[in-house]
Amino acid sequence: MLTAIAPVPRKVSRPRADAVRNRERIVTAAREMFVEHGPDVPLDEIARRAGVGNATVYRNFPDREALVREVVCFVMDRTAEAAETALAETRDAFAALERFVHASADERISALCPMISSTFDQHHPDLEASRERVEQLIEEVMGRAKAAGQLRPDVGVGDLMIVVAQLSRPPAGTDCLHGDRFIHRHLQLVLDGLRAPARSALPGAAVTIEELRGS
């Protein structure tokens, strides 16, 4: 009779701390340079800003698409975290909405999401998961403000996302960094216009997530 031998547990290898730090530096540098110069910035320039070698960039990200996807997911996850923090730490529903909007503008999500063009896999599981998480949290932040009677009821999630996208993107022909000082001023002007009770009726219908996705 054969005696069953329990399998020897294998040690799960974890990336070294310096490898994790290098990956984080690459993503941070890529985010900054994509916002400043667009998605076609040379990867060696990203490596230089991150303080790593070109080989380290390619070891972590085999191609530009993988790096762009990682940066967009990173920013969407940080935007979702901003919504979670606003919900958890801000009692006033509209103040939570304001806090989230200003924080999401700082992430420059509007400058990065258009990089997922038709040449990229827009339905990659990582992208879908990050997108669904942030959309659900925006709905929760807005829903709480509506339930409190503080946010006008004729505004949809898509409306808010368009506003943040348009105002956090510098106007054509202007310096990206110099335009930063106007963003929060103009966002606050719009936020004041979102308060209930509404002073006028909005033309058309609220923009939905499905319309933004083109589905």
Automatic annotation (TrEMBL):
UniProt DNA-binding residue ranges: 42-61
Domain of life: Bacteria
Pfam families registered for this protein in UniProt: TetR_C_43, TetR_N
Molecular function terms from GO: DNA-binding transcription factor activity; transcription cis-regulatory region binding
Record-annotated HTH tetR-type domain positions: 20-79
Lineage start: Bacteria, Bacillati, Actinomycetota, Actinomycetes, Kitasatosporales
Keyword annotations of the record: DNA-binding, Transcription, Transcription regulation
Presence of the UniProt keyword DNA-binding in the record: yes
InterPro entries listed in its UniProt record: Homeodomain-like_sf, HTH-type_TetR-like_transc_reg, HTH_TetR, Tet_transcr_reg_TetR-rel_C_sf, TetR_SbtR-like_C
PROSITE patterns: HTH_TETR_2
Name under which the protein is recorded: TetR family transcriptional regulator
